[in-house]
TrEMBL record:
Species for this entry: Pyricularia oryzae (strain 70-15 / ATCC MYA-4617 / FGSC 8958) (Rice blast fungus)
Entry keywords, A to Z: Membrane, Transmembrane, Transmembrane helix
Heterokaryon incompatibility domain boundaries: 248-393
Protein name: Heterokaryon incompatibility domain-containing protein
Regions crossing the membrane: 63-80, 87-106, 148-169
InterPro entries per record: HET (IPR010730), HetReg/Transcr_Mod (IPR052895)
Length: 849
């Protein structure tokens, strides 16, 4: 067990014993000297103990062993899973019990009259420090006297150690009371200063970095400390990359919402850090040697925006020149179990078969969840995997083997984590992953695995590859988060090639507004990089058809990068029609040249044609992640399936006949759902069959739930039956007969296994992400089938811009003159993605604000 956990547990337990004294004193005063006193004290003790206990800090056994072997032997059997607070309350109560038993055996003569009065009427601090120990020594039975003395002495020692060091950690019960934390922090600082060489230590203030060498940085020199001692260090300047620069470790961690409230000493002065940083420093500090670290919250003056901007440009080199990158993951429950699970999966994937890995996943996720599965899920769902800055920090390491994942009790191998995550994200194991069981707090597991793979890939990718261009990176990091909105841009600059032209017109500057920076990024990418292609990529992230957190201050043609994570949560932006990862590219403008210019910083003018106008808007098709028993899968499946058939009916009833592509409307529907592509165009006919299998599997699932008495499933089937009435009429075209035939095949043909059907259904489920997931199906006035942003309205104009690969929707601006329009978002128009509609009307210039 790490020293920091033991020390923190000792201090927390000691403070808990003091709080117990107050509770015991109050109870004794209220109830008086009777047999009820012991029972009431016990109840109050255990009640408060349970209320204040924090199960994520399981340090009971080690803390007890550090104080007394006897207490360790008792708690390892009786209280092995209790929190340190609860254990100390139980120890104090046991002291009461032993003294009461001794009093009974001695005929109430074990205590002097004075001590009896203290024990029965006060029962508080005086009783705790004096009477308990004196009374315990007066017990005549040796088998009662020995444990009584030990139990009375242990809390006394812990109280003294707490008063001497008085460190407060984030797990304390009053952590969520800011006003109380402030008072306690002030008194704690006074107590610390009183025990040190001066009464009160002044606050540390950063000195400006000496100008001269371009790569000059600060390093944190972490000094050796005594057990239970303070964190003491100093900040030294160093010229990065030179021989005079000491070897240092770069720390990567999750900042979190916590403010810098915990004090450390830098050059003898107080400097406040977050609880996460304090825990990391305790873990990294040594009793006998000095250690050099680079940690951004300390080594960069966060109050100086100019320094932040200049130091951010050096962060790539800072992590590249570091001896190693240490990733600090705090709050992981039982990380040693996660390590065993990771090693087991690595070995099974490396040397086993797909069937053996699938069996292992199902066994651990369903039967032995607490034997490593839940803990490994907690690792990949840690907030660190969702922080945008860590991408640069990990991928900049000179060697992936130099990256170490550090938890409270063990370390994890980063390369092994990336290998396991990549395997679980790839076929066929990703199908098995979609049927595994995870805890409610681990529903982000698929995204955490994907982020681990992405960061591992960037660490080995060529800096000049397309994946390292800013438009591509903006698409890849849409599900990450950041404390500062500007970090969604500035955190990516270190991932670009040093010769990338973006560095010429974009510099980190935290004094600028978020709206101005986002608009600058959009303008710069549209005008300087491959023009048409970059323009398409930038505009695909923009539009008022999606949630915009920044409001009217941001032009509709500029992406709101702070909303990307929200959109990704509904899989709206997981696939863009023209993103570089697609093997096939659309060309709706028919090869015409891009014509765009900016008359003012927030106004864009583009040439294009009006293709059509939206006449009918259907429901949004969602991508449902089948994870976790706590998720109401019946409701989500029913909603998904009902909206699926409503969209099918909308196509059959409103789309033009015959359709311009010559396909029947059933084919038009399923091909539109996948953008008529599954990495090749047109999409293979087998996807149409997969769509039907998916429908039947979903209906069978609801039927099974309804047969088991699930009321939601019964109501869903009734509603689904009413919806499907719209499909009746043309049996051949609607394909109801095909559905019935597939249903008969599934129930009668044993040659078709459940796994094969599930694999086929999941093939369709994954292909839906190409186009329809998170978008609404619409039909235009001329009967064209389209998929549009979720907030599309009837009357929105479908436009094809010159030099841009996909159509876009525009909406007449409501708060300005009639000339200007607003960008709604990217659209897919089936049958018009290869220039078929590029000449439907005369070209015009659109003014977009």
């Amino acid at each position: 067990m790490p020293r920091s956990n033991i020390e923190i547990g000792l201090q927390r337990g000691a403070r808990a014993s003091l709080l117990l004294c107050a509770a015991s004193s109050l109870t004794t005063r209220l109830l008086g000297p009777s047999w009820k006193t012991l029972a009431a004290t016990t109840v109050a003790t255990l009640s408060v103990g349970f209320a204040l206990s924090r199960p994520q800090c399981r340090t009971v056994d080690s803390i007890a062993a550090a104080h007394a072997l006897f207490v360790f032997l008792v708690t390892s059997v009786v209280l092995s899973r209790w929190d340190a607070l609860t254990t100390l309350f139980a120890i104090f109560t046991a002291t009461h019990v032993l003294l009461s038993i001794g009093e009974y055996f001695q005929g109430n003569q074990v205590l002097s009259r004075w001590n009896q009065g203290l024990f029965r009427y006060i029962g508080g601090f005086i009783t705790f420090f004096g009477t308990k120990l004196k009374s315990a020594k007066q017990v005549r039975q040796w088998w009662l006297r020995t444990p009584a003395v030990i139990l009375a002495g242990v809390p006394f020692f812990m109280a003294i150690s707490a008063l001497a060091t008085w460190n407060m950690m984030q797990e304390l019960p009053y952590a969520d009371w800011p006003w109380f934390r402030g008072v306690v922090r002030e008194q704690r600082l006074r107590a610390r200063s009183w025990t040190s060489w001066r009464y009160r230590a002044p606050a540390y203030v950063h000195s400006p970095i000496t100008k001269g060498f371009q790569g000059r940085i600060r390093l944190l020199k972490l000094r050796p400390r005594w057990p239970l001692g303070e964190i003491r260090c100093e900040l030294v300047e160093a010229d990065m990359g030179t021989t005079s620069c000491p070897d240092y470790e770069a720390i990567s961690y999750h900042w979190g919402p916590g403010k810098p409230t915990e004090p450390i000493y830098i050059d003898g002065k107080v400097f406040h850090v977050s609880p996460t940083v304090l825990a990391a420093l305790y873990q990294l500090s040594s009793y006998h040697q000095t250690r050099h670290l680079w940690i951004d919250s300390i080594c960069i003056n966060q109050r100086d925006t100019d320094e932040k901007g200049s130091q951010i440009t050096l962060m790539r080199d800072i992590y590249r020149h570091a001896r190693g990158v240490t990733v600090w993951l705090d709050g992981i429950p039982e990380p040693w179990e996660a390590r065993k699970m990771l090693a087991g999966l690595w070995h099974e994937i490396k040397f086993g078969t797909t069937q053996s890995v699938t069996a292992m996943l199902r066994m651990y996720s369903e039967q032995w969840r607490d034997s490593g599965w839940d803990q490994l899920c907690a690792v990949f769902c840690h907030p660190w995997f969702f922080r945008i800055w860590v991408i640069q920090e990990v991928s900049s390491a000179v060697d992936p083997e130099a990256v170490t994942i550090l938890t409270s009790t063990t370390t994890l191998n980063w390369s092994n984590m990336v290998f396991v995550a990549d395997s679980l994200n790839s076929l066929p194991l990703n199908i098995a992953m979609q049927t595994t069981v995870v805890a409610p707090e681990a529903l982000k597991l698929p995204l955490g695995l994907l982020h681990a793979v992405f960061m591992g890939y960037l660490g080995t990718a060529d800096p000049q590859s397309a994946s390292r261009r800013l438009p591509a990176l903006l698409g890849m990091v849409e599900s990450y988060g950041a404390t500062e909105p500007l970090d969604f841009v500035y955190a990516l600059l270190g991932l670009l090639d040093p010769e990338d032209p973006v560095h010429g017109w974009l510099k980190p500057d935290y004094s600028k507004s978020v709206e101005d920076v986002f608009a600058t990024v959009a303008r710069g990418l549209i005008m300087t990089l491959d023009q048409g292609k970059s323009c398409n990529e930038v505009l695909s992230y923009a539009g008022i058809g999606y949630t915009n957190k920044l409001g009217a201050g941001l032009p509709s043609w500029a992406p709101d990068l702070t909303s990307q994570g929200t959109r990704a949560g509904t899989w709206t932006y997981q696939q863009h029609f023209n993103r570089p990862s697609h093997a096939c590219q659309f060309n709706a403008s028919g090869g015409s040249a891009l014509d765009v210019f900016f008359p003012s910083p927030k106004v864009m003018r583009m040439r294009g044609i009006r293709f059509d106008r939206i006449a009918h808007v259907g429901p949004m098709l969602k991508y449902i992640e089948h994870y976790g028993p706590e998720v109401d899968e019946v409701t989500s499946t029913a909603d998904m399936l009902i909206n699926h058939f409503r969209c099918r009916i909308l196509v059959l009833s409103k789309a033009q006949r015959p359709y311009p592509t010559g396909q029947n409307l059933q084919d038009v529907f399923w091909r539109s759902c996948v953008g008529d592509t599954q990495f090749v165009r047109p999409a293979p006919d087998s996807l149409g069959t997969a769509c039907r299998v998916w429908e039947v599997m979903m209906m069978r699932y609801l039927s099974t739930e309804a047969a088991q008495g699930n009321r939601i499933a019964v109501e869903a089937l009734e509603k689904l039956q009413d919806v499907m009435q719209g499909l009746h009429g043309d049996e051949e075209e609607t394909g109801v007969g095909v559905v019935l035939q597939l249903l008969e095949l599934i129930t009668s043909n044993m040659a078709v296994t459940k796994d094969e059907l599930m694999r086929t259904a999941m093939e369709w489920n994954g292909a839906r992400m190409m186009c329809c997931a998170g978008r609404v199906l619409c039909v235009t006035e001329d009967g064209w089938v389209t998929f549009c942003p979720p907030e599309t309205l009837v009357g929105d104009v479908v436009c094809v811009f010159h030099g841009v690969g996909t159509p876009f929707l525009l909406r007449q601006s409501s708060d300005t003159d009639s000339v200007t329009m607003e960008l709604v978002g990217e659209a897919y128009v089936h049958g018009a993605m290869d220039g078929e509609g590029a000449c439907r009307s005369e070209p015009e210039v659109f003014t977009i604000v």
